[in-house]
Amino acid sequence: MNNPILVLAGCIELYKSKNKEYQNTKDKFENFTKGAELNQCTREQALWGYVTKQIVSLASIIKSGKNREKIGEKARDIIVYMAILEAMQGVNDD
Q1: φ and ψ at 29, to 5 degrees?
Q2: How far is CA 7 from CA 21, 45, 56, 79, in A?
Q3: Residue 64 belongs to some domain of the structure
Q4: % helix / strand / coil in the chain, to the nearest 5?
Q5: How far apart are the first and last CA of the chain?
Q6: Is residue 43 classed exposed, middle or buried when 0-12, 13-18 and 19+ CB atoms within 10 A define those classes?
Q7: Pick from 39, 48, 71, 72: most CB atoms within 10 A?
Q8: Does some domain include residue 94?
Q9: Residue 24, SS3 per DSSP
Q10: pTM surpassing 0.90?
């Protein structure tokens, strides 16, 4: 997928499918709210933990040259996490 528009469209589809899997309440950030509660931190901090895992994995793939077929998947995951982070701005951590 070498067209940025197609990459972003893929990110939207990824978000929709993951949202169906993880959101079971009206809280659109439910997965991060639960992660924050478990780790006694904010939703943003929970998200940062999740995205850090993806960044570390992507860096390892790039450095080692192994599993290069996973680069797109990791990149899309990171893009989706950053979009969620942006969406969290201005929403209270209730």
Answers
A1: -115, 30
A2: 21, 26, 21, 10
A3: yes
A4: 75, 0, 25
A5: 39
A6: buried
A7: 48
A8: no
A9: coil
A10: no
* Cβ(93)–Cβ(36) below 8 Å: yes
Q: Look up tokens 């793939």; give the residue.
A: 61
Domain range for 16: 4-20+29-88
Q: What is the dihedral of CA 30, 31, 33, 39, to 10 degrees?
A: 160
Q: Name the token pair of 35.
A: 């992660």
Q: 9 is written with which tokens?
A: 């469209």
* Number of domains forming the structure of the chain: 1
- Residue 93 inside a domain? The answer is no
Going residue by residue through the chain (94 aa), what tens digit of pLDDT does each one get? 579 999 999 999 999 988 888 888 888 899 999 999 999 999 999 999 999 999 999 999 999 999 999 999 999 999 999 999 999 998 776 5
Closest to 85 (Cα-Cα) out of 37, 29, 38: 29
